[in-house]
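To the structural biology subgroup,

Please find below the input and predicted structure for DMT family protein, which we are adding to the shared reference set this quarter. The sequence is reproduced verbatim from the submission form. If anyone notices a discrepancy with their own records, reply to this email rather than editing the shared folder directly, so we keep one authoritative version.
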Amino acid sequence: MKELQTIGLLTVSNLFMTFAWYGHLKFKDMEWSKSLGLITIVLISWGIALFEYLFQVPANKIGFKENGGPFNLLQLKVIQEAVSITVFLLFTTLLFKTEKIAWNHFVAFVLIIVAVFFAFKKW
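Predicted structure (tokenized):
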């Protein structure tokens, strides 16, 4: 159960993170934001990132082995990166229609999944 809670919270966290980091690039398409300065956009992104932390911190707390969770610190980080790239690929595909995922992007994604495998492999 803690595995699913951790991964679910990391997924929600990464949705907010991706919007905070890259969502502002779509502001140019919205009338209300065309005159916003960089500082304002940074502050909006920080506001969105606050929600990222509201999910990220509990995910790590619940998932961390020393807190009774199932994952060690390295496993948590590798899971977070795999979730992050998955969310980012979906975000890019759905919101930025001009971006195309090429074969090399797919290979990079597969290598990240392989990293997850190795992070969980018992030697």
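Summary notes: The mean pLDDT is 90. The two ends are 25 Å apart (CA to CA).

Regards,
Lab coordination
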